[in-house]
Design a protein that fits this description.
The protein is α+β, with helices and mostly antiparallel strands. 28% of the residues lie in helices and 30% in strands.
């Protein structure tokens, strides 16, 4: 009798271990480094989450689909005409497109540019240009030949690289700061408590580490297609 109980216990432990190692929901695939996004245009974040873009063949264009710079040339236009997944013809502003995927790599549209997302997960990290106008209060404007004052002479335009975070649960974008990381990992009580106990200096230094920890504990899943 004792032997039978021992065998049953081993079977239960084996099933539990199998369940823990195979926690991918039915009908879904877990994101990994080998995962490839389907190539095409993503009009909204829901299409990204479902990995269901508008394919190149659905885009109305005279460009060769096989061009290496196909998307770059396509986005030179202010609008793009496509047939959506229901077969309905639509004209969409290029600025309204969420992003696209090319050769399995995801790009996001931000600050009127398409930026690659190199670090993907529940919390994704990417870099994008940001252009802003800087006002110099000590620099005076000038008068033109018509004696009209030009107040823009004391303004300069600057472009800088900014780091961003993308919350894959909500689609919201945050600046890459320790406060943003703290907010995003607060959905995991253990990691949040661990991070919140760190000094401000260590929080700034270990931002990436805790993003990796969070992504490992909370993987992203995509529907099998």
């Amino acid at each position: 009798m004792l032997k039978i109980k021992y065998i049953v216990l081993l079977l239960i432990l084996s099933l539990n271990l199998h369940s823990q190692n195979n926690d991918t929901p039915t009908g879904y695939v877990k994101y990994s480094q080998s995962f490839k996004f389907k190539d095409g245009l993503y009009f909204n974040f829901l299409q990204v989450k479902n990995n269901s873009p508008i394919k190149k063949s659905q885009i109305v264009t005279n460009l060769d689909y096989k061009r290496y710079d196909f998307f770059e040339r396509l986005f030179e236009e202010k609008t793009i005409t496509v047939y959506d997944n229901m077969g309905v013809k639509k004209v969409v502003s290029t600025n309204d497109i969420w992003g696209f995927s090319n050769k399995g790599v995801l790009y996001i549209n931000l600050n009127e540019e398409f930026n690659r997302i190199p670090v993907f997960g529940s919390i994704s990290h990417f870099i994008a240009n940001k252009t802003y106008v800087e006002y110099d209060p000590y620099r005076y404007g000038s008068y033109n030949s018509y004696n009209n004052y030009n107040r823009y002479d004391n303004q300069t335009t600057k472009t800088v690289l900014i780091q961003y975070l993308l919350d894959f649960e909500t689609g919201k974008i945050y600046d890459f700061s320790y406060k943003s990381v703290e907010l995003l990992i607060s959905k995991d009580p253990d990691l949040y408590e661990e991070f919140s106990k760190l000094s401000t200096r260590k929080k700034k230094k270990l931002k990436f580490l805790y993003i990796r920890k969070y992504n490992k504990k909370h993987p992203v899943y995509f529907p099998k297609q």
